[in-house]
Amino acid sequence: QVQLVESGGGLVQPGGSLRLSCAASGSILSINAMGWYRQAPGKQRELVAGITGGGSTNYADSVKGRFTISRDNVKNTVYLQMNSLKPEDTGVYHCNQRAWTGSATSGTLKDYWGQGTQVTVSS
């Protein structure tokens, strides 16, 4: 099994910054894509940013130029640096990691989710 532990959420004023982290642990062979999703009250969960195993990134239009996703493959950790935060960035942020588990000859690729961390942008 794979466990994801998120940290870094909190309350911040508009224009402020936060850095989210999500570390995976367990019987991991390798991790393909990683991503951050958020769910605002009354809205569906949406992709905020993603990063492939090769390091290619993609962002929701609403966060381009303000958020940066990165990964540390040694630590099996994905980060989300959030700058110039706006009230509409408020929500629960969940990380996702697509991981291979098992053995080199009999592996399973599956999506794993963190428990979510609250980000509130308010004055």
SSE layout and pairing:
Layout: E1 2-7, E2 10-12, E3 18-26, E4 28-39, E5 46-51, E6 57-59, E7 67-72, E8 77-82, E9 91-102, E10 107-113, E11 117-121
Parallel strand pairs: 2-11
Antiparallel strand pairs: 1-3, 3-8, 4-5, 4-9, 5-6, 7-8, 9-10, 9-11
Radius of gyration: 15 Å
Integer average pLDDT: 95
Tally of DSSP β-strands: 11
Rounded to the nearest angstrom, the distance between the terminal CA atoms is: 40 Å
Task: Report low-confidence residues grouped into runs of 5 or more.
Answer: none
Reported for the largest beta sheet, the result is: 7 strands, mixed
Estimated helix fraction: under 10%
Order of helices and strands: EEEEEEEEEEE
Helix segment tally: 0
**Any idea what the shape is?**
elongated
Strand content: over 45%
- Overall structural class, as computed from helix and strand content, comes to mainly beta
In short:
β9 (91-102) and β10 (107-113) form a beta hairpin.
